[in-house]
Specification:
single chain, 435 residues, alpha/beta, Glutaconate Coenzyme A-transferase, seven-stranded parallel beta sheet, 26% helix
Length: 435
């Protein structure tokens, strides 16, 4: 439809719908409605105690709401701390609500969090007046169901996607036309160490498996290592650039899935313009509510479900931290636990936690115990495969002694003796006796 068929307003006018004390949802992924956020920041001296909820949200810049002059105007409450608000959270001006990503919509739907306004970023309307949430379904379906007021950026740069990512323009209280590039995450070529990790994981993935692949250079290395596989499927929280070639080349054809056979299932996308253009009006991709995509009992229905995620550190018992560096919140739980659990219930399912063995500072990521304050995202009761550039070990069914030995075997060599001594101190005689 032509733009003139709709009554558009300015961002500054649209954000006047927000009142002091309101609870506001802000769409995430690579589609933060930045024009609306900037306009809201300009109203800061008029407002007090506005709470803004977001989740995984990659910003092109630090949010303009993160300014000392606005500390009494806005409180950011994030379900997943990302670059736009990370510094603000760790300075103590914002906060985070711990919650599995797939369970956040329930907070909106059961009224635990009452939303007054939803800020969303949408595609151009189709001929019937529907717009799409594009690269960010995730929390948006539940937010627009429950918010009293919906304010939308209409953005020709947003791809039109199908599934739960559709809303009719008649439900929008205000529409703001923008031409605002989506944030992009470059598809960085993996390092040789990351390629080793990718190849080690790929060896254990059978043809016909359904994949969930996390975000980052190591998950990308896994995707680069799957080009000779056949009949793979995707049921994943996030679509990334690395998946495009696998789909185009027929490696991913979704033919063996039990859920949404023949179609790629995701809830959000993080990539480059190439990915967003590939998604545009592509009926083979379905974007669904995160409550459904990340439901472990939905995930488990796919046979050979394979979850691939990364972490910040792991201890010798198999406890995985992926959201914080000590007490400093770095990210969030996302869907890691949902997919680890879902894959464990799948026929032939398995999960992988992958990481380089050391940090950028040269410290071991495999530790006797987690750093004080570190959050446990995947418990030691659920950890399956752990992979570094030194190999892959399977902790499934292993006792504490075997776990420690296996994890030490894939630690950086310079830390193995130190870790061995720590394991003996923690586990005692049995650690030395039982080989």
């Amino acid at each position: 439809m032509e733009n003139q068929n709709y009554k558009y307003t300015s961002a500054d006018e649209a954000v006047k719908l927000v009142k002091s004390g309101d609870h506001v949802f802000v769409q995430g992924s690579c589609s933060i409605p930045e024009a609306l956020i900037a306009a809201l920041a300009r109203r800061g001296n008029e407002l007090r105690d506005v709470v803004l909820y977001n989740a995984f949200a990659l910003g092109r810049r630090v949010s303009p709401l993160c300014h000392p002059d606005l500390k009494d105007s806005f409180l950011i409450d994030s379900f997943f701390v990302s670059n736009a608000v990370r510094g603000w959270v760790n300075q103590g001006y914002a906060t985070t609500t711990p919650r599995f990503f797939g369970q956040v919509p329930q907070l909106f739907r059961d009224g635990s969090i009452k939303l007054d306004v939803a800020f969303i970023n949408c595609s151009m309307p189709d001929k019937d007046g529907y717009v799409s949430f594009g690269v960010s379904a995730d929390l948006t379906p539940s937010a627009v169901e429950t918010a009293k007021i919906i304010v939308a950026q209409i953005n020709p740069l947003m791809p039109y996607t199908y599934g739960d990512s559709i809303i009719h323009t008649s439900r929008l209280n205000a529409m703001v036309m923008v031409n605002d590039p989506l944030a992009e995450t470059p598809d960085i070529n993996p390092s040789q160490k990351e390629i080793c990790i990718g190849e080690a994981i790929a060896e254990h993935i059978p043809d016909g498996a359904t994949l969930q692949v996390g975000v980052g250079s190591i998950p990308n290395a896994v995707l680069h290592s799957l080009k000779h596989h056949k009949h793979l499927g995707l049921h994943t929280e996030a679509l990334t650039d690395g998946m495009v070639e696998l789909i185009k080349n027929g490696v991913v054809d979704n033919s063996q899935k039990q859920i949404e056979r023949g179609r790629t299932v995701a809830s959000l996308a993080l990539g480059t313009r190439r990915l967003y253009d590939f998604m545009d009006h592509n009926p083979s991709i379905i974007m669904r509510d995160i409550a459904w995509v990340n439901d472990p009992f939905v995930i488990a229905q796919n046979h050979n479900m394979t979850a691939i995620n990364s972490c910040l550190e792991i201890d010798l018992s198999g406890q995985v931290c992926a959201d914080s560096i000590g007490t400093r919140i770095y990210s969030g739980v996302g869907g890691q636990q949902d997919f680890v659990y879902g894959s464990s219930r799948s026929v032939g399912g398995q999960s992988f936690i992958a990481m380089l063995s050391t940090t950028s500072r040269g410290e071991s990521k495999i530790k006797p115990v987690l750093t004080p304050g570190a959050g446990v995202v995947t418990t030691r009761f659920q950890t399956n495969w752990v992979v570094t550039e030194y190999g892959a070990v399977n902790l499934r069914g292993k006792n504490m002694i075997d776990r420690a030995r296996l994890l030490i075997s894939i630690a950086a060599p310079e830390f193995r003796e130190e870790l061995d001594r720590a394991a003996f101190e923690m586990l005692g005689y049995a650690y030395r006796r039982w080989r």
